[in-house]
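Teaching assistant here, posting this on the class forum so everyone can see the example we discussed in section. The complex has two components, and the goal was to see what a joint structure prediction looks like when all of them are supplied at once.
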Amino acid sequence: MSTTMNKPVIGILGAGKLGTTLARLSTQAGYPTLIASSKPASKIALAVSVLAPGAQAVTAAELTSQAQIVILALPLGKYQTISRQGLAGKLVLDAMNYWWEVDGKENIFSTPTHSSSELIQEFLGESTVVKAFNHMGYHDLDAEVGQGKDGQRKAIAIAGDDAATVRQAAQLVTDFGFDPVILPSLADGIMLEPGSPLFGADQPKAQLQEMLAAFPESKLGKEISTSNQDS
Amino acid sequence: MTTSDKQLVFGLDSFGDVPDDLATDAPVSYEQALQQIVTEAKLADQVGVDVLALGEHHRPEYAISSPETVLAAIAAVTDRIKLSSGVTVLSSDDPVRVYERFATLDALSNGRAQIMLGRGSFTESFPLFGYDLENYDELFEEKTALFNKLLAGGTIDWEGKFTQKLTDVQVYPKLADHQLETYIGVGGTPDSIIRAAYYDFPVILAIIGGDPARFKPYVELYQRASAQFNHPAKPLGMHSHGVIADSAEEAYEIAWKYLRRSMDRIGSDRGWAKMTKERFDFEVKQGSYYVGTPEHVARKIADKMTKVGVKRFDFIYGAGGQTAPVREKTIQLYGTQVIPRVKELLKSGEYHYE
């Protein structure tokens, strides 16, 4: 395990399947890691100690005050429970997706011209939101981590507007064990959402880039192009 | 390390997929699909399968929305096989009525009823029965607590937020001399494992994709949680999809046509891209699909049961419109060849699966 010296503290909001998986990747990469859910820290402590050894279960308030980078891994429909003030000034990685079984039959979070991460950026006005870790299933994140050398590892796409924070996010993705693929803007993150051929993608960098290049020809790609012409 | 036969349980699970008609390739009627399940249950009983678990779904591709009604029909024509749901979506049902129905099934089947409670991977039942998805977790939490009280079989006093107030009531029919066997079906949510340990319910892990070994930490979590609640941990089980045929090629072709179709259909509702051949082959070789000859499937089951750390394996058969003869073939081979072979392999500990 690499040293935790000088590494930023990672805070993961959400202690379900995705949250505990990301916490495990984070501790494996040598980052000091905090994890919190809507429950008291004592309620998730056992699960965290078994599923993400080394990560610390805390309250959401403790997490937002101590973490330098926060990863959102809670159900998208609960985004309004996130503390805007607590996350002000921080880099926030949005790994959430619309999932109808828990978020409701109607996708009220994204449209072909407005990704759910843009909605989160609007809600968290004083944070910098970067979309990351959303397109690969949580069990693939677990299985693929650190497989192969650079260039053969599986890729995670990142979408953000601010070059400096996107670089930080890319470093995190690299340290977690994946190759980053950087999209030009946060709005481009729509290409990684449910309904896109990239949703679920578990591919190396070159294949993921090919899929991105082919995206305009996909059903969602065409819908986006039509919506843009209409507006 | 060797495992004694007696602790092992082998089940067959169905979600009630409507089979395709052999001649037309179109789905048969719901009437035919339900009667086919009864025919298959008789076969499973004859070939020595321990338990049949039927899921509750409210979607066009599945015929079973009321598993316990189907199980009652099966009870009348079988002798030995245990009759389970898999799962009963307790959150969108009335725990008292659920308990009454399974107590009835238990009486009619001479104590062969089991129930598997779960939050369900689909949530169509919420709007259908007038429940709000907003309360997804709270509903399951509260109703599990009430159901646990009902299992004790005595006088009930109860007050909850989403359920009826009960004062000094009894629920009938009473079970003769035992409690209703109750399991929790879990898809990988850590809280669900801990909740099951709290109530001392054994867990069946739904392992429907990826490397099964990734579920091993959940077994440890269940054991550690049970210790924290001061009772010995019950043995866990797992259920996964598969197709068994005389030749590997035939099994692969069936799975590629039907199992993949079923997965793509479910996946597309969730916005996932279609399954690639690479992914499908991974699932067949290292992942969660048990597809091939009886010998191959037996070796893989023995290997994965050991790696995950479970004592029960439920084979989900017939996914995605497989025709009646194909479904029956899987059941036949599972009961007559795979189950005895897995027991043999686990007993000797001498098997190899890559």
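For the discussion questions: Chain A touches chain B at residues 15-17, 20, 44, 46-47, 50-51, 97-105, 137, 139-140, 142-143, 193-202 (CB under 8 Å). The mean pLDDT of chain A is 92. Think about how each of these relates to the inputs above.
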